Amino acid sequence: MENNEIDPKALFTFSYGLYVVSTALGDKLNGQVADAVMQLTAEPVCVAACLHKNNYTAELLMQSKKFSISVFSEDVPLPFIGNFGFRCGRDYDKFARCSYRMTENGLPIVTEYTVAAIEAEVIDIVDVHTHRLFIGEVRSAQLLAGNNPLTYADYHKIRKGKSHANAPSSVFNNIK
């Protein structure tokens, strides 16, 4: 490559999903939509979730050191995504507007429009400029439904969804 220009369309070729990353601290529950979630290793199974430092979920997760991942199904309605993606849990109870259950480890799992649920214990936190990469060792994983997960490409192309300004992929909002 001859220049240092960044074409967001090149980044959009990465395959992403759409998830709710949640945590609990005392009686506080919070979760947020995340697209930067991935499996890192197989033995032991480790995953990572990248969250903006200013987000309430990241703040709670820094203290709780445990998180859950709920994988959205392709039939999830946009308002349901918006409940977790465009409101702050500091002053809004996101879990009051959805079906969920608490796990034995004290984490909320969204059970509505969810294909799978994963629980992880934080083993490392990496500072990445505006975000934190929470690396967790998986403690449990379960399939909740047989339908397909929502891909981030479908969220943008088919659903015409947008990303929150704090999302790592917010640059995709400008792609037509």
Would you kindly provide a written description of the structure presented here, covering whatever features stand out?
By secondary structure, this protein is an alpha+beta fold. It has one domain: Roll (Pnp Oxidase, Chain A), CATH 2.30.110.10. The chain contains 4 helices and 9 strands; from the N terminus they run αββββαβαββββα. The chain has helices at residues 8-11, 56-64, 78-85, 152-157, and strands spanning 19-25, 28-34, 37-42, 45-52, 66-72, 100-102, 108-110, 114-128, 131-143. The strands form 2 sheets. It has a 7-stranded antiparallel beta sheet. The model is unreliable at 169-173 (pLDDT under 50).
Question: Which helices and strands appear, and what pairs or packs with what?
Answer:
Blueprint: H1 8-11, E1 19-25, E2 28-34, E3 37-42, E4 45-52, H2 56-64, E5 66-72, H3 78-85, E6 100-102, E7 108-110, E8 114-128, E9 131-143, H4 152-157
Antiparallel strand pairs: 1-2, 1-5, 3-4, 4-9, 5-8, 6-7, 8-9
